Amino acid sequence: MAINKKIKELQEKREQMFRGGGEKAIEKQKALGKRTARERIMALLDENSFNEYDLFAEHEARDFDMDKKSLPTDGVIIGSGTIYGAPVAVFAQDFTVAGGSLGLMHSRKITKIMDHALKMRMPLIGINDSGGARIQEGVNSLAGYGEIFFRNTISSGVIPQISVILGPCAGGAVYSPALTDFVFVVDNISKMFITGPEVIKTVLGEEISMEDLGGAQVHSEITGNAHFFATSEEECFDQIKKLITFIPWNNSLKAKPFEQGEPNPEFNINKIVPEDPTLPYDVKDVIRAIVDFSDFFEIMELYAKNIVIGFGRMGGRTIGFVANQPLEMAGVLDVDSSDKAARFIRYCDAFNIPIITLVDLPGYLPGVDQEHAGVIRHGAKVLYAYSEATVPKLTVIIRKAYGGGYIAMGSRHLRADFVFAWPSAEIAVMGPEGAANIIFRKEIMSSDDPDGMRKQKIDEYKAKFANPYVAASRGYVDAVIEPSETRRLLLHSLAVSENKSIQMPDKKHGLPPF
Ligand code: HXC
């Protein structure tokens, strides 16, 4: 056969594979507003950068007439490419081929690209659209999932792992995403659940739609399984591309420096926090007043809104922000916000991203619900994550820093490298009202004018403790600063911390309270 003929034969074989599960299945996919697996990869990666591996992989299943079934690509496309020039490894499950179900060869393709990503120390992006373990392949499918989960765990903290949920993800299909760093979902398209509506109906007799059980909004607002919510696949891919610009390719590198620029003057840092300490404000405006170009990339925007996490840049370098949000429940720490913050702090620490903490909280949320939901265990995660983190840690106390909240939010005592406080800071064991009611109870009760006495004692307590100067006099706060000095001092502190080096005691690993 002449070489040209062989080339033509290759082209035809490729074309055949590119057709995936066939026209009808593709039509069904499109009718749901979904792209095909191949289209998704092309939309995500830089033009002409995708190199595919194992296009001709075939399954070897024999039971249930599987020997008569050809499954192009075995339902998953793998390869590597670039995003804005950054190398990435990718897999995309093809729902048009046996519902993207995971058989042995399908799993081997995924583990091959996972091994490749780990060896080459590059980010891994998995596009998930799957009915779960391929039922006809029995224990081989379960083995495949186990191999994937193991690699997710081993790669954790070494390379960034990103999961994109673009269809139903049932059974085993959800646990790999849950082990990765960031999960992206799209409204009306993404579904994640362990047991689907049919099983729930059979076992529990309850009717529920896939959307209400595990749709994009459920996982973004209620469960906290998803980190980024989009209304279309296109918006979702834009979010992934943006994330890639903020993070390093692996844990031995820093994120690539970016163009530097001043914040937008529209965010006037002197005017954000109200004079009246009982009034709320949006802490994201403070972040935008500090970061380059006022560009703040928020993570888990819809979940546990009482804490804000995300990336911004200062002097062109990526910074992780953790900030109490006075707009939501006065910015308290509770079970969910503790989980959200602690995990992000550990992410930043694993990937050499300095952490800036903005503090304004009345403490941990009191109540039976919180206590019974394990606020002790979850709250301890924040203490653990900050204490363990060795990246530069910079803290700015904006207003309230009471009780456990003061300690937990990146305090000096958990080894913050720099702690600044604004003149509006109030640092004490608890709020003046609660404190006065407890320590001056006898005086208040025995007074002829209990209300007047209470007010007098509250004012005394405020004058003594509700300010930053007591903490500053002990060196717990390094400097009391004007809000307008914040960016300059943080930039200076980051520059000073560039080569921070500390030794932790030798151990196999610690036991964080999870
Ligand atoms: C084999 C599967 C499959 C599966 C779907 N298909 N899921 N084949 N194994 N798990 C096939 C269908 O037979 C069908 O093939 C094609 O994919 C499209 O599926 P439909 O059902 O027509 O699509 P749709 O109506 O959109 O429903 C999608 C779905 C549903 C909700 C995902 O297919 C479904 O419920 N599948 C099973 C989900 C599940 O229970 N998975 C858990 C597996 S156990 P044809 O040839 O007709 O086109 C598991 C345990 C692992 O994962 C635990 C590890 C920790």
Structural notes for this entry:
- This protein is an alpha/beta fold.
- The chain is built from 20 helices and 16 strands.
- The protein folds into three domains: 2-246, 2-enoyl-CoA Hydratase, Chain A, domain 1, CATH 3.90.226.10; 269-429 and 467-496, 2-enoyl-CoA Hydratase, Chain A, domain 1, CATH 3.90.226.10; 432-465, no CATH class.
- A hairpin with a 2-residue loop joins strand 10 and strand 11 (317-324).
- It starts with a helix and ends in an 18-residue tail after the last helix.
- The mean pLDDT is 95.
- Hexanoyl-coenzyme A binds next to helix 5 and strand 5.
- Provide the residue-averaged pLDDT: 95
CATH architecture of the largest domain, please?
Answer: Alpha-Beta Complex
Counting structural domains, the number is: 3
CATH names the topology of the largest domain as 2-enoyl-CoA Hydratase, Chain A, domain 1
Approximate helicity band: 25-40%
